[in-house]
């Protein structure tokens, strides 16, 4: 595409307006340029150009301005509808809620808000603003992932939504793969960055590894933001010959810690890609970024002031603490780190710790061990409630296909248990070990730490 | 297909012994769980999870007052027989 200087747009438009202004500016200069490829890698692939997307935003903004709703809850299935409604709400100064399917129950908290779906109609509403949601600049309401608790609504400013957009020239006009849910914080940041930089947002038709791989190759995706769990699934289960044609330039991992073997596998599969690992928390946003392709972060970072004034330290039990500036207090992150050689590596979330008869087990350690067993592609470890011991270590494993010569599912399972007995304390050995076809992930693409539901 | 309760219990105990690298053996109702079968609290906890899967009940999860001591395989069989029966009458 023609070189676009969007820095003026980003400098001049206020945050809530910026997405709409940028879309119009790109549409004016390169109307036919692809903004979104929806259902990529599937038979119903759709291409939406910047002119069409900007026209959608214009139409919705007019309707929103006329209807003056208290707020808008987006209930659109189509990615272009979701993006256009969000951009129009920002421009019209109306708060917008992006709720994933599993957070629909929370919409009751926003019952005075107007629902807009794929028809893009904005029904008139005679309601005034309710108490509870204060006025102030228009914001974005999203639901938390619920990795370790039930989802809840949180309010974000447009400044926060757009903060991550990298405006440097080399980021412009690239193909961004969206494997996250578009209504989640991680997903919102991907589509916002793609569209603010005149990129092509590529949304796979399905999230299965083969469809994702096909979308990467067919649409020439350059940037893949993903969780380690999603990347691992892609690397272990997608068609190898397809993956080898991928031309990824960057892989940005986040949401979970990435282990060494996964980083090695990713480097081998995508030799042209720069792999970075973002450490961010819900409360602090992005704290640091590791780009050397190794797990964890350099030990030398601890206790020293980093760029941006951030200072990292660790509690005696290994919990990582972050001090954002010299005069702010330490924030406990809930993430546990351990010194291994010249690196601090993440060993898990404090809240993920499984307590078996009073003894603590870090699920990540068990997962890493299970994944090192020949024949095992993926593993997930969780705490199974028990009336006798409080919890038991339980695990699910996905086998490689095909299995190594001579191996059977039963022999791999036995080898996994033997390896755990060899390396772990008795309470750390999984007592429940199931072979499954895929690992359950949360809506944010992380491996779930909750037991498999046994009650309806 | 619903397994008989004694069969389900014997299967669960043999699975626990097998999974923990011990040799599976015949399980009889008179056997003492700790002394004869060598089951510790982790083994018992695993047995109970396996039985919840095969029988659909966990009699140890429900808060109950005085529970008779579980010492033998036979004790387990009676606790589960009672729990399965009470679930059946409730539904």
Structure description:
The complex is a heterodimer of chains A (456) and B (91). Chain A has 456 residues and is α/β, with parallel strands linked by helices. In chain A, the strands form six sheets. Chain A has a five-stranded mixed β-sheet. In chain A, strands 14-18-17-16-15 form a five-stranded antiparallel β-sheet, covered by helices on one side. The model of chain A has no long low-confidence stretch (mean pLDDT 88). Chain B is mainly α and 91 residues long. Chain B has a single domain, classed as Non-ribosomal Peptide Synthetase Peptidyl Carrier Protein, Chain A (Orthogonal Bundle), CATH 1.10.1200.10. Chain B has three helices and no strands. At the A-B interface, strand 21 and helix 12 of A face helix 2 of B.
Notable characteristics:
heterodimer, A: 456 residues, alpha/beta, Rossmann fold, GMP Synthetase, Chain A, domain 3, 3 domains, five-stranded mixed beta sheet, five-stranded antiparallel beta sheet, 23 strands, 28% helix, globular, B: 91 residues, mainly alpha, Non-ribosomal Peptide Synthetase Peptidyl Carrier Protein, Chain A, 3 helices, 53% helix
Which SSEs are present, and which pair or pack?
The complex is a heterodimer of chains A (456) and B (91).
Chain A lengths: L6 H6 L2 H15 L4 E7 L5 E4 H18 L4 E3 L4 H14 L3 E3 L15 E3 L22 E5 L9 E5 H6 L11 E3 L7 H12 L3 E5 L4 H10 L4 E4 L1 H10 L2 H4 L6 E4 L6 H10 L4 E8 L3 E6 L6 E2 L12 E4 L4 E5 L7 E10 L2 E7 L4 E3 L2 E3 L1 H9 L4 E11 L3 E10 L9 H15 L8 E4 L21
Parallel strand pairs in A: 1-9, 3-4, 3-5, 4-6, 8-9, 10-11, 11-12, 22-23
Antiparallel strand pairs in A: 1-2, 6-7, 12-13, 14-18, 15-16, 16-17, 17-18, 19-20, 21-22
Helix pairs in contact in A: 2-3, 2-4, 3-4, 7-8, 8-10
Chain B lengths: L4 H15 L21 H15 L17 H18 L1
